[in-house]
Every structure is written in structure tokens, then in C-alpha cells.
Amino acid sequence: MKKLTGLQKQVLGLYRGFLRAARSKGPEDRKKIESYVSSEFRNNAKNVERKNFIYIEYLLRRGTKQLDQLKTVETVSTFTVPSRSGN
Amino acid sequence: MATISATSVRFGSSLKLSSRTGQVTGRSITSVKFVSVGWAKNGFPSLRSSSFRVSCAAKPETVQKVCEIVRKQLVLSPETELTPESKFSALGADSLDTVEIVMGLEEEFDISVEEDNSQNITTVQEAADLIESIIQKKGEA
């Protein structure tokens, strides 16, 4: 793999965080979370312009918030699909 | 002098073995690969110490397990060839897949991989080596 930029490392770190958090949920929730998170990350990886740092940083912040929420809240229902704006 | 010629004979035979076995099972490949790696990386005179270190690297069971997880994670077809030296990226894995592989390994081996380390893993062999070193450290702690 090529050397990763700081931003890429942050994104991967966030992804790890999500997968970690998903482990603490029940098997069914976990599956749901994992498939949602995975598709979200892959979608953005494909569709977000690589140089659109401001948007990527925004997504990172939003993701971090969602992760915090996921860690504290027992249910998955609060983990709603946000409508994607821009891009 | 006697020892040197003895090792050279062994290497000769194991190298022949690698070409003969081709791609049967992960286990036979890995054991052969260890030998050939040590042979290629290190010069002849230092063979004894180096081959000791190489054989210490990762157990075939670990490599085997890692292979299974990688297969599962990347949804590789059974006929896809997977050797310890296979690069994840060559198998079609992106960085997100690599994260997933490492997470899968963590669960399987009940370990925790540091973030910095996880991004340096590019092959099955590297993963297996890292896992063993972590397990070893855990045992000592």
C-alpha cells in the first residue's frame, strides 16, 4: 500500500472506531451497523473528490460525532441515515 | 565446513520441493517459503543464525488462519491463489478492506493491533508475524 496521508489515516482510524464500537452491540445490530458503515465509507471513498478537503473534514467530524453517539447509546435507531448534502 | 555443506543440501532439496508442490495447501507452501526467504535474504555464511530467526517467524497454523480470514474478508474464490507473500492490494483489497482484515484478525486471535502497526501490514506473512509478536508480548506481560 502507498503511504497514507494524515487525512487518510484519520478516515481509516474512524472506520476502525466504528467497527470496534459495532462489536459491543448484539449480533444483529452489529451486522446492520457494519454494513451501513461499510457502504457509507465506500460510497464516500468513491464519490467524494479526493481534493475536497473541507468536505472530507466535515464528514470526519460528522462521523466522529456519530461514533460517539453509537458508543453511548444502546440502540441502533439513533444511528440514522443522514441525507447527504453537497457533492 | 561439514555443516555448511549439510545446510546447502537441505536448501537445495527444499527449493526443489517448492517447485514440485506448486500450490497444494497453505501449510506446505508456507514451510517451504520460510526456507526460501531465509535463503534469498541472507548470504550464505550467516545461514545458521538467520535461518533460526526465520523459522521463529510465524507458525504455519497462524499463517493458515490468516489466509482463511483474508479469504473470507475479501470474498476470494477457492481457486484464487493465496500465498504468504500475496499482497492484499494485489488481491483487490483497498485500505478499508485492510482495516477489516486487521479487525477480523484481532477478533480471531483475541489481540489488539496498534493503529500504526495495522497500516504497515500488506501481506499475509506480515500479518502473521505481527500477530505472533503480539501474542508473545501478551504472554510475557
TrEMBL record, chain A:
Record-annotated Complex 1 LYR protein domain positions: 9-69
GO biological process: mitochondrial respiratory chain complex II assembly
CDD domains: Complex1_LYR_SDHAF1_LYRM8
One cellular component (GO) term of this entry: mitochondrial matrix
Subcellular location: Mitochondrion matrix
InterPro entries per UniProt: Complex1_LYR_dom (IPR008011), Complex1_LYR_SDHAF1_LYRM8 (IPR045295)
Major subcellular site: mitochondrion
Keywords annotated in UniProt: Chaperone, Mitochondrion
PANTHER family linked to this entry: LYR MOTIF-CONTAINING PROTEIN 2, SUCCINATE DEHYDROGENASE ASSEMBLY FACTOR 1, MITOCHONDRIAL
Family listed: Belongs to the complex I LYR family. SDHAF1 subfamily.
Full protein name: Complex 1 LYR protein domain-containing protein
Organism: Papaver atlanticum
Automatic annotation (TrEMBL), chain B:
GO cellular component terms given for this protein: chloroplast
InterPro entries attached to this UniProt entry: ACP, ACP-like_sf, ACP_chloroplastic, PP-bd_ACP, Ppantetheine_attach_site
Cell compartments where the protein resides: Plastid, Chloroplast
Domain Carrier: 60-135
GO molecular function terms noted in the UniProt entry: acyl carrier activity
A Pfam family assignment: PP-binding
Major location category of this protein: plastid
PROSITE patterns, per database record: CARRIER, PHOSPHOPANTETHEINE
Keywords: Chloroplast, Fatty acid biosynthesis, Fatty acid metabolism, Lipid biosynthesis, Lipid metabolism, Phosphopantetheine, Phosphoprotein, Plastid, Transit peptide
Domain of life: Eukaryota
Similarity comment text for this entry: Belongs to the acyl carrier protein (ACP) family.
Function: Carrier of the growing fatty acid chain in fatty acid biosynthesis.
Name this protein carries in UniProt: Acyl carrier protein
Species in which this protein is naturally found: Papaver atlanticum
Lineage of source species: Eukaryota, Viridiplantae, Streptophyta, Embryophyta, Tracheophyta
